[in-house]
Design goal:
With 212 residues, the protein is of the alpha/beta class. It has 9 helices and 6 strands. It has 2 domains: 131 residues, Rossmann fold; 60 residues, no CATH class.
Length: 212
């Protein structure tokens, strides 16, 4: 059986759930890979996606769910925040309290929309020595716009009420659209489909020019 331990990470006035997975290695403090998901994933699936293979290669793995993700949004009702460094820093602070973590050997991996969140975090949290953005995202809303007809983009800009009415009709007929916008409204803590696009995170380039 894999060596998986559920963990609780102090975060502001509450906690974040996670798992610590021991790597197959003789080292007492192997490199730690911190892993989080993105728009709609869970910590549990990250074991099968990433940690299962990483621990075979000798890495310790720390999986966590942050605001807007998994149990944190569904049980604690804490939505996404753009300044993800304020999420990752408490995770790092927890990690370095462990006797099986080398504070000089920590990497961070973000999956899907985590490809925005992880680079944003390491621009400010310099304890992280390497960052993996899978895939790398500079502007999450730009990708969403690419999937919309130009007429619909213009409607979103000029008449949000009509845009929301149209999307509501689409959601009634299309299960994928219904899931996408319902999840977006929940994780971004907004009340209309149009506001989902306003609340998609964008990296603040001036403040993040120190990415290392």
């Amino acid at each position: 059986m894999p060596n998986i331990t559920p963990i609780t990470i102090p975060y502001e006035e509450t906690t974040l759930p996670g798992y610590f997975v021991k790597g197959k290695t003789h080292l007492k403090k192997p490199t730690l890979l911190i892993i989080h998901t993105g728009f709609d994933g869970t910590g549990e699936e990250l074991y099968f996606e990433i940690a299962h293979s990483a621990t075979k290669r000798g890495y310790n793995c720390l999986i966590f769910e942050g605001p807007g993700q998994g149990a944190v949004i569904r049980l604690q009702n804490i939505p996404f925040r753009y300044d993800w460094e304020k999420v990752v820093t408490p995770v790092v602070d927890y990690a370095i309290t462990r006797n099986d973590v080398d504070s000089n050997k920590m990497a961070l991996m973000g999956i899907s929309m985590g490809g925005y969140l992880a680079p944003r975090a390491v621009a400010f949290e310099h304890s992280i020595k390497a960052c993996i953005a899978d895939g790398g995202i500079f502007d999450f809303s730009e990708d969403r716009y690419k999937s919309m007809p130009k007429e619909l983009i213009e409607l979103l800009k000029t008449d949000k009420a009509k845009f929301n009415e149209y999307i509501g009709e689409v959601m009634e007929k299309d299960i994928t659209a219904r899931w996408f916008f319902n999840n977006g409204m929940m994780v971004f803590d907004v009340d209309t489909p149009g506001r989902c696009y306003v609340n998609y995170p964008k990296i603040h380039t001036k403040r993040c020019s120190t990415v290392h």
